[in-house]
Amino acid sequence: MPTCINHPDRETSYVCLKNNVALCEECLACSDPQLFCKFRPACIIWFMTKKLDGMDAGSKKVKK
C-alpha cells in the first residue's frame, strides 16, 4: 500500500493518477483544481475533496 507524500508513516489508498502521488485523509486535496485533468471524472481525490468541502460549508452555517 502506498504512503502519503507528506506523511511517510501513513498508509493510504488515495492516489492522484495525474501526479502519481499518494495522499492521506489529512492531506486530501486536488493540487490543480482549476486545470484540466483527464482523470477527474473517476478521481476519488476530487470526489472526496468536494464532499469534504460540502460538509465544511454546511457546518459553518449559522442557525437562526
Task: Summarize the model shown.
With 64 residues, the chain is of the alpha+beta class. The protein contains 1 helix and 2 strands; from the N terminus they run E-E-H.
Could you please describe the fold and organization of this structure?
This protein has 64 residues and is of the alpha+beta class. The protein has one domain. It contains 1 helix and 2 strands; from the N terminus they run ββα. The protein has one helix spanning 44-59; strands spanning 14-16, 21-23. Strands 1-2 form a two-stranded antiparallel sheet. The longest helix has 16 residues, at 44-59. The protein is globular. The termini are far apart. The model is unreliable at 57-64 (pLDDT under 50).
Give the CA-CA distance, first to last residue.
Answer: 46 Å
Task: Estimate percent helicity.
Answer: 25-40%
What kind of assembly state do the chains in view correspond to?
Answer: single chain
- According to DSSP, the number of beta strands is 2
- If you average the pLDDT, what whole number results? 85
Mind summarizing the main beta sheet? Answer: 2 strands, antiparallel
Strand portion? 5-15%
Radius of gyration: 14 Å
How many domains make up the coordinates? Answer: 1
Overall 3D shape: globular
Number of helices: 1
Note the run of SSEs as H and E.
EEH
Low-pLDDT parts are 57-64
User: Taking strands numbered 1, 2, ... along the chain, how are they ordered across the largest sheet?
Assistant: 1-2
Structural class: alpha+beta
